[in-house]
Design goal:
By secondary structure, the chain is of the alpha/beta class. Helix content is 33%, strand content 15%. The protein has one domain: TIM Barrel, CATH 3.20.20.100. The chain has an 8-stranded parallel beta sheet. A two-stranded antiparallel sheet has the order 1-2. The structure holds NADP nicotinamide-adenine-dinucleotide phosphate.
Length: 324
C-alpha cells in the first residue's frame, strides 16, 4: 500500500479527494487566527485537503490562508480540496444556497470542492444558527433531507460546488437518499466519526458497495472539547495496545491511529494547530502496518462515539439509534 501525501481517491462523480485532510475544528475559546496559521503551515508542508465547517466559525481565517498560499504561488486553487458543511439550520430548500454562499463569501472563494450536509437533522434557524451565537438549546425542525439534497444539487449545477456529500448519516438514511425519486447526484462521501474504538466496519462496507467514500473524523480521539465530549471517556492516544504497536514501528500513537484508518481504505482527517504535530502526522505515509497489527487494532472497537451530539437525540432523524 504505497500511499503518499499526493494520493487521491476518485469519487463517484469523477472528482479526486486527497486521502489525508487537515481538520480545523477548535473549541470556541481558541483564537480563530490559529486556524489560519495552521492551514498555511499545512499547505507549505504538502497537505492539499482542508476540512472545515460553517458552524466552526473560522472559515474566514481558512479562506485567508488558502488565498494567501495561492497569491504566494505555493498552490493553485485547483490543487487544493476544501470541504465545507451546510449547518442544520440551513436545511430548508430556500436556505441552502444562502448557506453555501455565506461560506464562499466568508472564505473569498468562487467554489467549494465538497459541500456536506453536516448532520441528517434539521434545526430551526434560531439559537445556535450562527457560530458566534452559542445560545442553546437547538430547536428541532422537520425539513426532509431529501428536499435539502435537491437544493444542493442545484448549487452543484450552478457551479458553486464540485462535489456533494453527507456527514453523520446512518445506513437507513443513506439508503433513503440513494432511493430518492429523481436523484441527480449520489453523495460522494459520508464523513463520520471513525477510529480504533469505532471502526465503522459495517457502515464502511455498505458505503463501499454504493461507491461512497468514508471520510473519518476524530481519528486521534477527538478534540475533547468539553462542550461536545464527555471527558470521562478514555483518551484514545493513551491506549496501551495502540502504544505498544506504535513502539514496535517506532512511530507515535497518532501516526498508527491514522495509518490504521488509511489502510482500511478510509480517508483520514486529523486536526492539529501545532506546526510540529501537523508535520509529524505526515509520518503516516512512511510505514505500513502488518496484517496482524491491523487485526489487533480492529479488535479494539467498542462502538464509542466521542461526539454523539446528544442535543439532537430526540430528533426523529438522530442517526445513532440504529446499529449503523
Ligand atoms: N462532520 C462532523 O460532524 C465532524 C465532527 C468532528 C470533527 N470533524 C472534522 O474532523 C476533524 C478532526 O476531528 P477532531 O477535531 O474531532 O479531532 P482529532 O483529529 O481526532 O484530534 C484532534 C486533537 O488531537 C491533537 N493532535 C493532533 N495531532 C497529534 C499528534 N500527532 N499527537 C498528539 N496529539 C495530536 C490535537 O491537538 P493540537 O491541535 O494541539 O495538535 C487535537 O487536540 C475536525 O477538526 C473537523 O474538521 C467533523
Amino acid at each position: 500500500m504505497n500511499f503518499t501525501k499526493e494520493t487521491r481517491v476518485t469519487l463517484n462523480d469523477g472528482n479526486m479527494m486527497p486521502i489525508l485532510g487537515l481538520g480545523t475544528y477548535a473549541a470556541p475559546d481558541v483564537p480563530k487566527s490559529l486556524a489560519e496559521d495552521a492551514v498555511k503551515v499545512a499547505i507549505d508542508l504538502g497537505y492539499r485537503h482542508i476540512d472545515g465547517a460553517f458552524i466552526t466559525g473560522n472559515e474566514m481565517q481558512i479562506g485567508n490562508a488558502i488565498r494567501c498560499k495561492i497569491a504566494e504561488g505555493v498552490i493553485k486553487r485547483e490543487d487544493l480540496f476544501y470541504t465545507g458543511k451546510l449547518w442544520c439550520t440551513y436545511f430548508s430548500p430556500e436556505m441552502v444556497r444562502k448557506g453555501l454562499e455565506r461560506s464562499l463569501r466568508d472564505m473569498g472563494l468562487d467554489y467549494l470542492d465538497l459541500f456536506l450536509m453536516h448532520w441528517p437533522v434539521s434545526l430551526k434557524p434560531t439559537g445556535a444558527a450562527d457560530p458566534s451565537d452559542t445560545d442553546k438549546p437547538f430547536i428541532y425542525d422537520n425539513v426532509d433531507f431529501c428536499a435539502t439534497w435537491e437544493a444542493l444539487e442545484a448549487c452543484k449545477d450552478a457551479g458553486l460546488v464540485k462535489s456533494l456529500g453527507v456527514s453523520n448519516f446512518n445506513r437507513r438514511q443513506l439508503e433513503r437518499l440513494l432511493n430518492k425519486p429523481g436523484l441527480k447526484y449520489k453523495p460522494v462521501c459520508n464523513q463520520v466519526e471513525c477510529h480504533i474504538y469505532l471502526n465503522q466496519n459495517k457502515l464502511h462496507s455498505y458505503c463501499k458497495s454504493k461507491d461512497i467514500v468514508v471520510v473519518a473524523y476524530s481519528v486521534l480521539g477527538s478534540h475533547r472539547d468539553k462542550n461536545w465530549v464527555d471527558l470521562s471517556l478514555p483518551v484514545l492516544l493513551d491506549d496501551p495496545i495502540l502504544n505498544k504497536i506504535a513502539a514496535k514501528y517506532n512511530r507515535s500513537s497518532a501516526e498508527v491511529a491514522m495509518r490504521f484508518i488509511l489502510q482500511k481504505g478510509i480517508v483520514v482527517l486529523a486536526k492539529s494547530f501545532s506546526p510540529a504535530r501537523i508535520r509529524q502526522n505526515l509520518g503516516v505515509f512512511e510505514f505500513e502496518l502488518k496484517p496482524e497489527d491491523m487485526k489487533t487494532l480492529d479488535s479494539l472497537d467498542r462502538n464509542l462515539h466521542y461526539g454523539p451530539f446528544k442535543e439532537v437525540k430526540q430528533h426523529p432523524e438522530y442517526p445513532f439509534h440504529d446499529e449503523y
